[in-house]
Amino acid sequence: MEKITGKNNDIVKDVKKLFTSSRQRREQQLFVLEGARLVFDVLHSFYEVKWFLITENAMEKYNDLANQMIEKSERSYIISEEIARKLSDTENTQGVFAVCKMKDQSLDINNGGKYIALDNLQDPGNFGTVIRTAEALGIDGIIYSQGCDVFNPKVLRSSMGSVLRMNIQSCENLPDYLSCMRDKGMKVYGTSPDSSLKKITEIDFNGGCICVIGNEANGISDEVKKSCSELITIPMLGRAESLNASVAGAITMWEMLR
């Protein structure tokens, strides 16, 4: 394995850019994983690894898994602790990184399946939590439009690796996409805090459906609302006017699948 010791090495610069810039990720079709759990999770995914970077201490600690990553990766590098700290997106780095190739994000919709659509979700913690919850509950896939980048390091961490395993599709025009799915026989439900709407507990989720969770501040857009079969609400008894997006998503998915 080649050793990288200089902070100004081109590979180090490229990895740092991928960590911090969604534009770089889109243009290069690459993203970065950090930390033992996330990096070694990629061993059981369909993602290809371009570069694997690890410190000597981490190599000793995770020797068996690290050797599997070396076999899976196009190139592998030993990096210094100083470089690991420079690259890290966390306060205390484990010294394990992987640069992975993005795969085609097209979702083969099953007309009898259950899906969540995210309309301009901005907070990476919310986004990652929704993905993690969706995997745990058995949702068939996630469609997201605008908002946060699914390969944002904070999304990857908060999803606890679920991004690597879930069926996830980026969608440029969510209203058109939802209208198309509705025309194909899917029920499309838009969630809203409006208490005058039909309660989610009264909806029959038998058959294929998509439920839309909206932006943290503004909810789902007017254009998306027009594409929905029906607008529904999560009943609330207290004085709170709305729910956190990831909490609303969790309740919605539970109701869809129970």
Task: Describe the protein's architecture and organization.
- With 258 residues, this protein is of the alpha/beta class.
- Helices cover 37% and strands 22% of the residues.
- The longest helix is centred in the middle third of the chain and has 14 residues, at 124-137.
- The protein is elongated and about 60 Å long.
Give the helices and strands, then pairings:
Layout: E1 2-4, H1 10-20, H2 22-28, E2 30-34, H3 36-41, E3 49-55, H4 56-61, H5 63-72, E4 73-79, H6 81-87, E5 96-101, E6 114-119, H7 124-137, E7 141-145, H8 153-158, E8 168-170, H9 174-183, E9 187-191, E10 198-199, E11 209-213, H10 222-227, E12 230-233, H11 245-257
Parallel strand pairs: 1-4, 3-4, 6-7, 6-11, 7-8, 9-11, 9-12, 10-12
Antiparallel strand pairs: 2-5, 3-5
